[in-house]
Amino acid sequence: MLDKSKPTESIAAYIAGLDEPFRSIIAHLRQVVLSAAPEAEEIITYAMPGIGQNGPLIAYSAFRNHCSLFPMGSPLTSMAEEIAPWKTSKGTLQFTQDNPIPDELVVRIVHERLAENAARAETRKAKRGKAK
Prior knowledge:
With 132 residues, this protein is an alpha+beta fold.
């Protein structure tokens, strides 16, 4: 049975509380996301595990019948063709054990989010500089 508890203590504890195959799927996704953004830090955002750098980047979670990847920005809008094989909703890419998201696509999503957050950070920095 899937442990529906939210990751309040640690991401490792959240993953350890999942039943298979979700535990393996989410553990693998975690490693792919972390390797794509080695300077990012793990965070819990919207009660889900994820990573952040200059703000939240990506969150992910396991549900009863699927897993979801939550890019916290807008990279999915530019990837309509690539993400067509998976169920999507605004800001969510759902996948199953039988139809996982390829690691290369996850890495691309993370890299696009890194670029979005870096651009936002530069804009904020520039605005602060003008305010002085």
